[in-house]
Specification:
single chain; about 260 residues; alpha+beta; 5-stranded antiparallel sheet; 8 helices; 12 strands; about 20% strand
Length: about 260
């Protein structure tokens, strides 16, 4: 558990890909048991924040993406490892077992059937790791931004009129329902490794981006004429092949 690489040595895209890979494996095995979800928050003023696998009751799992917790895996504030152990060759299953033990989840020898939240996490993880060393790569931005100084709902959620209508009158997320709804959406977009987490819009020169609704696994493409898609339906029709879902995402992003 002794990876000593610093933020200056590890690209954000690499940290993020490793964190999402482990988070997706945790989701795949324990989402149904513990009603898990993936969110991002910013406890200080770091531009990168913490990726969290959250549970409505019980401990969550935090993956540090910058600052003093760079790459750390923590359960209830106790450090149990680093996402960079994947680079050292530690199997993701071993890290998931370690997380489950620390969180007190019932041990499971196999993965549960993939549902929409798990599918979104798996698809995002696969895309991030495929492009983590590309010149620009990709990153995720949560639909809700919250740090020590301010909070706000992401403006790119306007791409989903029905969702936006439910939160446009609460732009700072003062209501818990607004925060939950915004946090259940993710934007997958190009990364320059120092991007502002508060992505309010997708500029024409930024290329296409995709908004994921975690609860339904529906994907909406912004900055491109490509039509959105129900990813869970595509997953089922393809014979439960993640590769088919990822192929569509890459095509929609213009990355294929």
């Amino acid at each position: 558990m002794g990876v000593s690489m610093t933020r200056a040595q590890v690209r954000y895209t690499v940290l993020s890909a490793c964190a999402w890979r482990i988070a997706s494996e945790v989701m795949r095995r324990y989402q149904a048991q513990a009603s898990l979800s993936v969110i991002q928050f910013y406890p200080g003023v770091s531009p990168h924040g913490i990726l969290r696998v959250a549970a409505p009751a019980g401990p969550g799992v935090d993956f540090g993406l910058g600052g003093g917790t760079n790459g750390s895996i923590e359960v209830e504030g106790a450090r149990i490892g680093s996402v960079l152990e994947l680079i050292e060759g530690v199997p993701s299953a071993q890290l998931v077992d370690r997380i489950a033990e620390a969180a007190g989840w019932r041990s499971k020898a196999s993965n549960a059937p993939t549902n929409p939240p798990v599918l979104v996490a798996r698809a995002i993880a696969r895309v991030l790791e495929r492009y983590m060393l590309a010149p620009n790569g990709y990153r995720t931005t949560s639909g809700f931004f919250d740090n020590a100084q301010e909070s706000e709902v992401a403006g790119w959620l306007e791409a989903l009129p029905e969702v936006w209508a439910r939160m446009k009158d609460d732009p700072f997320g003062n209501d818990a329902a607004t925060r939950r709804l915004a946090s259940s959406h993710w934007l997958l977009h190009r990364c320059d490794d120092g991007a502002n987490p508060r992505i309010q819009a997708v500029a024409p020169g930024d290329g296409p981006a995709i908004v994921f609704d975690v609860q339904t696994a529906k994907a909406t493409v912004v900055g491109s004429p490509v039509r959105g898609r129900d990813l869970f339906e595509s997953y089922v029709v393809s014979g439960h092949r993640l590769r088919a879902v990822v192929a569509w995402i890459e095509e929609a992003l213009g990355a294929a």
